[in-house]
């Protein structure tokens, strides 16, 4: 049985490790969400969109820990598969939807919060995306994002570090610093940025999770080579939170 308890994540530590590991689609979704939620105000009864929810591990956490109503929207994972993963934890009421992040099937002004764990990098770096996604928030609504980040902009480095390029290729261009995100969002005046920080423990958490997934599956996770070569020099996560005025 794989051990998955981690200092600093008391809420996540309460979840069944095998179930969390079975939902793996990248780095640890619950550690990222638990950290992000420190910069959000989530209250019972709120409507929350879990955007790019994958198998729905984070949707269970949102519903159970904060008593919010969750819409779990994802492109690659079938809603029936996500619903089964969610139901395995006895959580009822999460709505799973197949949705593309640019054509969301929701009413404008519907959500109190939109949360996006390890998915925003696939669609959120385009200049126009913030204006699109914030349409779905109520006034005062919150946007919370946890996304892979680099400690230095690739533009500044002038190249993609070799160990990152080997695994991720050009897609690493979407991995930015917290300062990049802060500027990108603040300049629009569409939101007030309430947090834009790099995780101190991001690289170590990602490494620990990748070891746990490798042990659980009995095969070495691809990210391990990249993380071991990095040693925390570039790789971590950005935690971003903003409020619609
Ligand atoms: C690395 S997985 C993370 C899943 C989940 N949030 C988690 O942390 O376990 C990225 C997710 O982003 C979703 N995604 C990527 N591009 C998308 C798009 N254009 N619209 C909606 N979802 C998208 C994928 O379907 C995938 O489930």
Helix/strand order: HHEHEHEEHEHHHEHHE
Q: Tell me, what's the shape?
A: globular
Number of beta-strand segments:
7
Poorly predicted regions: none
Q: Estimate the strand proportion.
A: 15-25%
Helix-residue proportion = 25-40%
Spatial strand sequence of the major β-sheet: 3-2-1-4-5-7-6
Could you give me the name of the CATH homologous superfamily?
Vaccinia Virus protein VP39
**CATH architectural designation:** 3-Layer(aba) Sandwich
- Given this structure, which CATH class is correct? Alpha Beta
| Largest pleated sheet | 7 strands, mixed
Number of helices: 10
The CATH topology:
Rossmann fold
Question: Which structural class fits the helix and strand makeup?
Answer: alpha/beta
Structure description:
This protein is an alpha/beta fold and 245 residues long. The protein has one domain (12-243): Vaccinia Virus protein VP39 (Rossmann fold, 3-Layer(aba) Sandwich). Helices cover 34% and strands 21% of the residues. The chain is built from 10 helices and 7 strands. It has a 7-stranded mixed beta sheet, with helices on both faces. Bound molecules: S-adenosylmethionine (SAM). S-adenosylmethionine binds next to helix 3.
What brief labels describe this structure?
single chain; 245 residues; alpha/beta; Rossmann fold; 7-stranded mixed sheet; 21% strand; binds S-adenosylmethionine
Q: What is the topology?
A:
Layout: H1 17-22, H2 29-37, E1 47-51, H3 57-66, E2 69-74, H4 79-87, E3 95-98, E4 111-117, H5 129-134, E5 137-150, H6 154-157, H7 162-168, H8 178-186, E6 192-198, H9 202-217, H10 223-230, E7 235-243
Parallel strand pairs: 1-2, 1-4, 2-3, 4-5
Antiparallel strand pairs: 5-7, 6-7
Helix pairs in contact: 7-10, 9-10
Residues 25-26, 29, 52-54, 57-58, 74-77, 99-101, 117-119, 122-123 line the site of S-adenosylmethionine (SAM).
């Amino acid at each position: 049985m794989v051990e998955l308890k981690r200092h600093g994540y008391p809420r996540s530590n309460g979840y069944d490790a095998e179930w969390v590991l079975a939902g793996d689609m990248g780095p640890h979704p619950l550690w990222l969400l638990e950290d992000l939620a420190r910069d959000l105000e989530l209250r019972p009864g709120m409507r929350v969109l879990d955007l790019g929810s994958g198998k729905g591990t984070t949707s269970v956490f949102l519903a159970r820990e904060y008593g919010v109503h969750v819409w779990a929207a994802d492109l690659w994972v079938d809603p029936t598969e996500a619903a089964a993963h969610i139901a395995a934890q006895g959580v009822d009421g999460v709505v799973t939807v197949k949705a593309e992040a640019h054509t969301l099937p929701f009413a404008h002004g519907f959500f109190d919060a939109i949360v996006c764990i390890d998915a925003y990098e696939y669609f959120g770096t385009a200049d126009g995306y913030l204006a699109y996604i914030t349409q779905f928030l109520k006034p005062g609504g919150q946007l919370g994002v946890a996304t892979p980040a680099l400690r230095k902009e690739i533009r500044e480095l002038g190249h993609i570090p070799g160990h990152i390029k080997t695994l991720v290729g050009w897609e690493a261009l979407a991995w930015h610093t917290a300062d990049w995100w802060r500027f990108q969002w603040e300049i629009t005046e569409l939101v007030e940025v309430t947090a834009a920080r790099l995780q101190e423990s991001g690289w170590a958490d990602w490494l620990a999770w990748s070891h746990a997934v490798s042990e659980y599956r009995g095969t070495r996770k691809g990210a391990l080579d990249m993380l071991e070569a990095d040693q925390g020099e570039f790789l971590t996560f950005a935690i971003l939170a903003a409020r619609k005025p």
